[in-house]
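Lab meeting minutes (informal)
Scribe: AK
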Amino acid sequence: MKTRIPLIDFANITVIKGRNQKVLDSISLQIAEGENVAILGPNGAGKSSLIKLITRQYYPVPDDQSSFRIWGQENWDVFDLRYLLGIVSNDLQYQCNRDITGMEVVLSGFFSSIGLFKEHITPLMRQKAQEIIDFLEIDHLKERTIDYMSSGEARRFLIGRALVHDPKALILDEPTNSLDLHALYKFTNILQKIVKRGTSIILVTHYLSDIIPEINRVILMKDGGFYKDGPKGEVLTGSHLSKLFEAPIEITSKDGYYYALRGKT
């Protein structure tokens, strides 16, 4: 039987930022192709640094005992990575918050640009972009500029930008920041559609309610390291989350969603 290559596989990775600030401390992580994972932790846990490590904005401290592989390879052209990992981050949304239309944002995914300049757009590209827009239920917004959209609307166009290459996994960094309840409901429905379409989800968040039922593995992150890692039902307990967030927390669940309640002090 052929061994499946992990989508993400790294061991003993340390990242130092600025003057000896250790933002990731000897972490190891393996995520299989097709696996839906949530990485949960408080602000300052190192979640954003982990995203920047994966996207090659941060590089690990050189060490003979460490390794960093995506789809079995240590060295990648960033453009080639688009076919494996789609990234949607708050940094990207900030860069795209300008006078460019939703359709332009999705099309720019073919060129890894922010908006369009003199790129040659083929009919097949336009067809693919329109298919993604229809799938994400945002056709009525495609001619509106991003700076006149709500955060939830803009977030869906950024997802469309990432999906034009049919990546194996979509990495979402704090995707529900600033969303109201209606936008949150629409957004989680879209995430479920993406998973059913065959794209796996790696969700990085500090909100328990972001974790859709299709996610079956949860990693708790704290102080630049991984605190717990395992099946969702075993990891999302009041005891674990109380220690993670340093506050009394009780957990309840309904229909595959988990919710945090204030625990007794």
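Next up, CB showed the second protein from the same session:
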Amino acid sequence: MRRVRAISLFSGCGGSDLVLKRLGYNLVWANDILEVACDTYRDNVGSAIEHGDISDFEKFPTANLLIGCYPCQGFTQGGRRNSSDLINYLYQEFDRVLRRVIPKAFVVENVNGMLYGRNRELLDNQLRRYRFAGYSVKSQVLNAKDYGVPQNRNRVFIVGIRSDLSFKYKFPDPQFGPNTGQKFESQKIALRGLPDWPTGEFNEEPFHWYYFSRNRRRTWSQPSPCIVGHWRHVPLHPMSPPLRRIHTDKWIFSRKGPARRLAYRECAALQGFPRSFVWKRGSVRQRFQMIGNAVPPPLFEAVVGNLRDLW
């Protein structure tokens, strides 16, 4: 594939951009507001990223692909939500850049919570904006475990193809799970070789009532629950005792034994980051945030891989 020029917005530490680099795309510009994420990006992806608020940038290089994973606090199904928070409207900045650059295609990823209730109106508004910008737009929820990520993680993807092009995008079919001939990737395989008790790499605070309001443990042979950006809420390591349900919002350990949350390197492995990815910037808490907010590379590779014939 010839080197297609690409721009990445809300790039974070570079989960999606790592894939573009590996596939041979030419990342000509990237941006994130979090400085530690930009530093981590430079350690692993390249120097194309600029630190700052996207609203402060007016000029952008030419590109045929625009990608972005704007923040999603207002759409999330876990943690605090505020539908009036201005962070929920950062898609307008993506739309602004889209209309300036006019690429052949764009890809957006966000939490699937935007499909439900009042959030649906915000999703519909995004789809309308991108269509008015001159794109044929499709959206679909994909689960990361269907694409080789050892984690149960549903995310909505929006893919747009410029309307003057004849190319028709199709979302990738599941590659793992029922009817594929491939078992879901397990935590056992993903975590193989990592230390059992990596002191200093996980949150050692006592478990609180909210943590036990749901089942945050899966067995070694299963994919992990969703990896989140807050280190207090990441799932239990599978070495922990099984949880037993007491009532709707209360779970307890079924027996005594060592129990801990996942470490940040384990979360990175369960997101599909390669072991070679360097995590040396910021605090441990910030590393959890970067990892949990990232796009799992194998999932993004499946989505962007279906653009191959467009180029």
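CB comment: The helical segments are 15-23, 35-44, 91-101, 119-132, 187-190, 264-271, 284-293, 297-305.
No objections, moving on.
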